[in-house]
Amino acid sequence: MDSKKKYKPPFMLKVMRVSIHILTFLAPPLAARLVNYLWFKTHRHDEPRREQRVLDTAVWKEVEFENKVVQLYSWGELNAPTVLLVHGWNGRGAQLGSFAQGLVDHGYHVLAFDAPGHGRSSSKNTSLPEISRVIQELSEQFGPFSAGIAHSFGGLCLMHAVSTGVKMDKVVCIASAFNVERLVQFFAKLMQVKPKIVELQKRLLEQQLGEELWEQYSMPNMVSSISTSGLIIHDNGDDAIPVERSKMIAQVWNESELVLTTGLGHRRILRDKAVIKKSVEFIAN
User: Fold this and answer.
1) 206 shares its domain with 236
2) How far apart are CA 185 and CA 202, in angstroms?
3) How many helices (H) and strands (E) does the chain have?
4) pLDDT at position 1, please?
5) Environment class of residue 262 by beta-carbon count within 10 Å: exposed (0-12), middle (13-18) or buried (19+)?
6) Are both 19 and 153 inside the same structural domain?
7) Which residues of 5-20 are buried (b: 16+ CB within 10 A; e: fewer)?
8) Backbone phi, psi, residue 229, to 5°
9) Are residues 88 and 195 in the same domain?
10) Which one of 11, 112, 259, 277 counts the least CB within 10 Å of its CB?
11) pLDDT, mean of residues 67-87
């Protein structure tokens, strides 16, 4: 008998899957619109106590962005070189808070934020282009940034901002997402979406983000066009984003180093002392 607990999807996920399934047979265009709506919708999760303790040491500030409120957290002296922390989808700035103290000890100012629809920021949805614009706005207000550290979906957002003009000398990408095409496939698998509905949703995405989105929002394409130095970190056992994605990114990012870990998964890697030490040293040296 298998000792592992069988995965039971949350009730609302099951409801959404059934809704998509029914619409797939009754009205495929409506099914695609529902999938696309859910694609942009965000979900907030409670902060564990360890993150709350990190935020207790931060200075909090709100900024307005495109009629939304974005929550910021900062550590260290404001006039010091600044390192930006960028969380992933359905994450929050505090998830990368463990990097703050080490960077401050090396003389940096650290800035984190909750993306729209995440954490304490307003809205119930967001997109890669919007988060990229938030990073651009923060660069104008608090930059130039010396470096950035990004996790998962945040890697795509940060590198898009860098590839479109935000200046950074160094970037650390931890378990970075690969491109929008892969994210569509992952979401379709999660929601059990039929291939014909996936194709309809892709057309909707092209209407909203432009037909060139598949090339524009691709890590290999973005990193091959920049001079920023990169540290790529990924766990061999990551069950959310396969480690092969980072290996492919490293092959086309000329000024990069790839570090692989074992036993840390997709999120615990953000709290690993060796990962934090390696990232801080990469930025500081």
Assistant:
1) no
2) 10
3) 12, 8
4) 35
5) exposed
6) no
7) eeeeeeeeeeebeebb
8) -80, 145
9) no
10) 11
11) 97
The boundaries of the domain holding residue 26 are: 9-41+187-216
Q: What is the 3-state secondary structure (H, E, C) of 187-238?
A: HHHHHCCCHHHHHHHHHHHHHHHCCCHHHHCEHHHHHCCCCCEEEEEEECCC
List 77's β-bridge partners, or say none: none
Locus of tokens 């009730």: 11
Per-residue model confidence as pLDDT tens digits over 45-64 = 999 999 999 999 999 999 99
- The CA R_g of the chain, rounded to the nearest whole Å, is 19
Task: Give the 3-state secondary structure of residue 86.
Answer: strand
pLDDT band for position 5 (50/70/90)? Answer: low
The CA angle 111-117-120, to the nearest 5 degrees, is: 55
For residues 163 and 255, state if they share a domain.
yes
